Amino acid sequence: MPKQVADSTHEMAGPVPATFQQGDCGRAALAPVADGCENGADHEAAIRRYAVQRRLPERSVEAWLKLGAEGARMLLELSVALKLRTGQLAAVIELVAEIALREGTTAVSVLKRGEITSIAKGVGSAPERASKLLNVLRILRYPELNRALAKLQSAVEALRLPRSVTVGLPKDLSSGQLSIEIRAGSLAELDEAVRALREASARFSEIFDSLEGADEL
Amino acid sequence: MNFEIDALFIEDAVRSSELAQRLVARLNSKVPVSYVMDGRQAARPLPVDDAFVAGKRRLVVMNRRSRFLSPCPAAGAGLACCGYLVLVLASNCPMNCSYCFLQEYVADNPGLQIYANYAQAFEELERLLRTNSARHFRIGTGELADSLAFDRVTGLSVDLVEFFRRHERLTLELKTKTDEIDNLLRMDPLGRVLVSWTLSPSRVYRSSEHGTAAPQARIDAACRVREAGYRVGFHLDPIIAYPQAETEYRELLSMLFDALAPGEISFLSVGGLRMTPGLRAIARRRFPNDPMLVGEEVLSPDGRYRACYPMRLRLYRSLAAHIQAKAPGLTHYLCMETPAVVARALGTAPPSPAVLGERLATA
Ligand code: SF4
């Protein structure tokens, strides 16, 4: 279970959900929010203070503030809760902004998605949940790419090739070329790997089709 | 279309050129005119927030110092090539498309340069014909500028059509996103001039192609020049792989084929959005609210951001199938992709640049 912060009554009383308040770093930044001062200027001041602590580049701070007062506040709470590192925070800001823009929605509605609130409220260490958050945001940001990638990965697994053969998908599915690596310490091992590859060739053609955007594997 | 100009700069050396005089006479008299020693200085970025846009409003008439004619950048970059030759008569454009490569390419000299010594370009073309006695060439002026955006005031198309109509083995391609065709309608190109339009679905036009003519207006203009004896072609470039892309690009093609029979169209080129990392950063900074700039692009082996391979291939194949079904026989080719991608997308290896070039020049 995440460590609940119950030792500070004024933080518990504020709009920040208790489950978000695990971290120490950032509590000072959250003070105006916790004190019930919810106007935009206070949020901005809180975010700027937190950004200074985190040494967040100004470009990211500007992008953060452009998420709107409510979205920016929610992201601050999330960052405090998951103890996002500076690079992670910058990536999250960018991803949330881009998802909202792509989908014609707001940062608030992105951050209120079940996949994200469940990470915010969920179990696991802060670093684990931070990396989960980034994964989920990347999937939302690149939905087709991730759908294709998941399909291809399971198709590659289904080939059931010997451990001496590794099939590599192109990085970020940026091209149509697979890489095949064979590790062999003897001619017999090499023969076995080649035979397995040959036997799998029909299923490879399905993988190539999928890599080229054919809908069904 | 009336593009506003803040200032006109004329290089001393071209003060008495026909082009400079035409511009002085035809531009709004409120536009201040300055004479400068070196037009390149006037084309430098101003110290303002968006120096690129400021440059688009400063017209500089000057001499071009380098060659006018060059091969298309695809040639020599390992990409399938259509044998297109580029004639650089101007640099930068008064419109403002969020994906435009000029944002990066002319960032250091965004002033809208128009070259007064363009008679030299005609000499280069004649030399090209003399040294290649059998080939037919397609020459385009729309690489670093829109071919027709300022035609109302420059009248360049008149000189160009006049030159090309006299040269049987040359085809001029005027490429545009405007409906500036009045000068063209007054001339008979004798079939040697092709006007091409870049087309995008309305959603892309609205979000990304600021200051351009609407897609329907471009198609209407194409119908009119076609009736006046020009050949017409279309570029679906860049194709942007946004969620509704497949449907909307097909609808766009249907809109096109409703207006023009496939036999009336010389060719259709298709090219996916590609951006260098530098261009992508500039475009996103300049157009932070354009959803078309946050697609599922990934860094491709050629160092450009492109839609990830499955999405790109699916879109190319879907459009190729649609074109094949609605306009069988229409010459259709992929632009700025490697021969391997072209072969996978269209099912056949691309023809050589000379063969495709000849076909497009005479289509
Ligand atoms: S019309 Fe062409 S040259 Fe002009 S801004 Fe748009 S993409 Fe660039």
Q: What does the model show?
A:
The complex is a heterodimer of chains A (217) and B (363). Chain A has helices spanning 9-13, 27-34, 40-54, 58-65, 69-82, 86-103, 107-111, 114-121, 126-141, 143-158, 187-199, 201-211; strands at 165-168, 179-182. Chain A is mainly alpha-helical. Chain A folds into two domains: 18-141, no CATH class; 143-214, no CATH class. The two termini of chain A are 40 Å apart. The model of chain A is unreliable at 1-28 and 31-37 (pLDDT under 50). Chain B has 363 residues and is an alpha/beta fold. Chain B has a single domain (64-362), classed as pyruvate-formate lyase- activating enzyme (Alpha-Beta Horseshoe). In chain B, 37% of the residues lie in helices and 21% in strands. In chain B, the strands form four sheets. Chain B has an eight-stranded mixed β-sheet. In chain B, helix 11 packs parallel to helix 13 and helix 13 (309-326) crosses helix 14 (339-346). Chain B is globular and about 55 Å long. The two termini of chain B are 29 Å apart. The mean pLDDT of chain B is 95. The A-B interface holds A 66, 98, 101-102, 104, 141-145, 148, 170-176, 210-215 and B 288-291, 294-296, 298-301, 306, 308-315, 317, 340-341, 344. The complex binds iron/sulfur cluster (SF4). The site of iron/sulfur cluster has 9 residues of chain B, from strand 7. Iron/sulfur cluster (SF4) is lined by residues 93, 95-97, 100, 102, 146, 177, 212 of chain B.
Name the biggest interface.
A-B, 24 and 24 residues
* Low-pLDDT residue intervals, each spanning 5 or more residues of chain B: none
* CA-atom Rg of chain B in angstroms: 20 Å
CATH class of chain B: Alpha Beta
Mean pLDDT across residues of chain B: 95
> What structural category arises from helix and sheet content of chain A?
mainly alpha
The order of strands across the largest sheet of chain B is 4-5-9-10-11-13-14-18
Q: In which range does the helix fraction of chain B lie? A: 25-40%
- Taking all residues together, what is the mean pLDDT of chain A? 84
Count, helices of chain A? 12
Category from helices, strands and their pairing of chain B: alpha/beta
Bound molecules: iron/sulfur cluster
- Report the principal-axis shape of chain B: globular
What fraction of the residues of chain A are assigned to beta strands by DSSP? under 5%
* Percentage of β-strand residues of chain B: 15-25%
Give the C-alpha Rg of chain A: 23 Å
- Tell me, briefly, the overall form of chain A: elongated
Number of domains of chain A: 2
